[in-house]
Amino acid sequence: MASDTPNKVSGGCLCGAIHYDILFKDEGSWPPMVATCQCNMCRKWTGSLVSTNLIVKKAQVSPAWPSFTTLKEYQSSPSSKRAFCSGCGSGIAWFSDDMPDEVVVFVGTLDEEYLMGKVIEETARETEHGKEFERAPAYGRILADSSSAGNLYWQNAVVGITDNLPGPKFLQHFFDKVPLSESVE
Ligand SMILES: [Zn+2]
Ligand SMILES: [Zn+2]
């Protein structure tokens, strides 16, 4: 894992029409806040059992979200919207009226370079299992670590599969609630 603080990480949609940078220049912006969610809406929208979500200030994102021509928004609840690429369907971000200064970016859209590390081509070799290679240091362990903000909709966890995530667990949303791990032994 890379030990330094990155100036930025980048990410985008599958077709490449949306590509963003998230800047970590301001003091206190690194490590970022990370939450997971297992609500029914995140599941339907991402097609994944767990969504891993980076919570950052809108001002940290460059260019600003509305500048992408393929970006469309779906009003998923009265107070929140989900932004996706209309070209390829990738779900990118979630916005809520309750968090007007923040945007929640889906960590799976981050680029390989920052999430897992660039493949070092010179290290590639064929094995009986397939191609093995080493990667350059990256930030995935921090960018996906829900210890910072916690895990939402724990009531929907698939026992034995999605119930082993780091950080506090919340039965539903975390606003004004005590995490499960602090109230139950
Ligand atoms: Zn796209
Ligand atoms: Zn959710």
Automatic annotation (TrEMBL):
Kindly list the GO molecular function terms attached to this UniProt entry.
Answer: carbon-sulfur lyase activity; metal ion binding
The name this protein carries in UniProt is CENP-V/GFA domain-containing protein
What is the similarity comment for this entry? Belongs to the Gfa family.
Q: Which InterPro entries match?
A: CENP-V/GFA, Mss4-like_sf
Is-annotated flag, keyword Zinc? yes
| CENP-V/GFA domain sequence ranges | 9-134
Which species is the source of this protein?
Answer: Lithohypha guttulata
One Pfam entry name: GFA
Key words of the record = Lyase, Metal-binding, Zinc
